[in-house]
Specification:
This protein is an alpha/beta fold. It has five helices and seven strands.
Amino acid sequence: MYEDDRVRVTAREVPHPPLHQSFGYRFETEEGIVAFSGDTAYSHSVGELAAGADLLVHETMEPDFSRGLGYSDRLLDFQTASHTAPGDVGRLATAAGARHVALSHTGPPDPREVGDDDWTRKVAATYTGPVVVGHDLTRLVPVR
C-alpha cells in the first residue's frame, strides 16, 4: 500500500497464468475510488479492490467470440484461464457494489467483429449499472 495526503493506493495480486505476478489496484482520493483489475482471470482480489468503488476498470475477453473467429483450442484455453468473461465482470461489479464499469483490454479487439454494444450487453446481463467500453484516449471521471 502507498498513501500520501492526496491518494491511497492498494495493490493485490491477481491470477493471470502463466505469469507469476499480475496486479490489480485501488486508488482512493477525495474525488472518488477507482479500481483497476489488471490483466486477470475472475478474481476475488479484484472484488475486494472494487468494493464500493465509483468506477471499476476491468479487462475482458470473450472466448465465445474468439471461437467464432476460429481461434485455436490452446488460445481459447489461455483466454479462459487468464482473462475474465464479460458476464463475470458484471457479476464481480455487482457483488462489489461498483457504481460504474469501464471495460478495457477487450479481446478480440477488432470492433468490426465485436462492437461496443456486444460487450455492454454481455456485462449488462449480470450488472445493472452503467457500462462503457474504453478506447484509446477515453477519459472517465468517477462520479459519486
